[in-house]
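Morning!

This is the sequence you dropped in the shared folder:
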Amino acid sequence: MVSEWASRRRRAEKADAQGLARAPAARTIARLMTIGRADLSKSETVTVAAIERGAPALVEAREILASFQAMIRKKALLDLDPWLARARSSLVACFASGVAKDRAAVAAAILSPWSNGQTEGQITKLKLVKRQMYGRGKIDLLQASVIGLQ
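The structure's back. Tokens below.
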């Protein structure tokens, strides 16, 4: 019992000294930094606070990505050039260079009221049905399955 208490105490001291008991996985960090603050649990909030203390550049990257998302949603094309300038000097520089290379397409996506989201959803549903049938379906069976879902 004493050894268990001592080991718990050592782990707690190590966690207090470093902010976290062990470093979370990269995917976990990416997920925590991109979801909304209101959606975080108490332990996730503590983890995000420790990450922000340890890597302030991630906070800037999160803010830059959030501003890109807001720019797309608000259809604010005039914000694209200042966003690119800010993003080129941050952790998302690779993403920013990709956006800059395809600037015409990004500008069209910002200005256009059209989206291919509905089409992508239908294709995803069709692929799911096809996978569930393990390739057994010819066009008539596949058509019956898809129409039967709707």
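Headline: The chain has two domains: 2-111, 117-149.

More detail when I'm at my desk.
O.
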